[in-house]
Amino acid sequence: MKKKVSVIGAGNVGASLAQMIVQSGIADVVLFDIADGIPEGKALDLSEACPLWGSSSSIVGTNDYAHTADSDVIVITAGFPRKPGMSRDDLLNANAKVVSDVTENTSKASPNAVIIVVTNPMDVMAQVSFKVSGFDPSRVMGMGGILDSARFRTFVAWELNVSPEDVEALVLGGHGDLMVPMPRFTTIKGVSITELISKERIDALVERTRHGGAEIVALLKTGSAYYAPAAATYQMVKAILFDEKRMLPCAAYLNGEYGATGIYTGLPVMLGSGGVEKIVELNLNEQEKTDFEKSVSAVKSLVEKLSL
Ligand code: APR
User: Fold this and answer.
1) Is 67 a catalytic residue?
2) Predicted pLDDT at 85
3) Which amino acid residue places its CA nearest to atom 27 of ligand 1?
4) Which of 142, 172, 205 is the last residue of a domain?
5) Do 79 and 219 fall into the same domain?
6) pTM, 2 dp
7) Residue 179: closest CA among 207, 153, 156
8) What are phi and psi of 109, to 5 degrees?
9) Does the CB atom of residue 266 touch ligand 1 within 6 A?
């Protein structure tokens, strides 16, 4: 039997992710949304593409949570995206309500699932989902670091005129303007970019990465990025379904690691069928520690604004 992934929110990110999963044939998909007809229409369209892709995955579009029952993975993309001039944090209260409602319904229907939260402000929404689901924190995580790292990889690849595939990058901390791109841990075939790019240029690439989402919002004007967010989430879904033990930056619940407790933030983790199977602790230098702590404090202050 195929694995089952429920994608909650059939908007830009959710539908793009559903397409990636169905096109690659790695799982069956349930695409859920509250909007009438949208999930059904998109699922039907994707079903009709399957013969052309040579895929035997099935996809069902629905407004009924019963269809999500017994999912292996639940991806939450439901909520509101940013408009120009908005930060991810401006979405806090509206999206907390959506994520809380979605988590309550999906976690009841799939008590053994792993939940991946994409909705912004993502670190806080992961915390909401963790609380509402009552799941072990290893089974609730957020997507942010892979996307931020992919943006950093892209900009580094353009700078050095190398393939983005050969750039490894790491971005820690909250998925917000205070995220912490880590040049020391960003390498081309093992060589740190600190040896290949001037400090001024690295600073510029870090700044562009921090505002990578806003750059796209300003261009699109009616919504936020979705191809790269969907691709980043796809990587997480695949790592969990196939127990790949990938080392990827994801938002995970800290329980003393990196000196913080009871909060979600972006860290390198090992992803497998159990979800976050391990949090990898890196030796941060003083500047990296300060930047990381600032980023975690920003997530904490947002969490405090919610009555969880
Ligand atoms: N239950 C289910 N679906 C909902 C709910 C809800 N309570 N509230 C809203 N939705 C659905 C909307 O109907 C819409 O189809 O969520 C979908 C969101 O899609 P888009 O508006 O296209 O937003 P998208 O670009 O996909 O971004 C979704 O991911 O990256 C983040 O910041 C982004 O928080 C945003 C989320």
Assistant:
1) no
2) 83
3) 81
4) 142
5) no
6) 0.97
7) 207
8) -75, -25
9) no
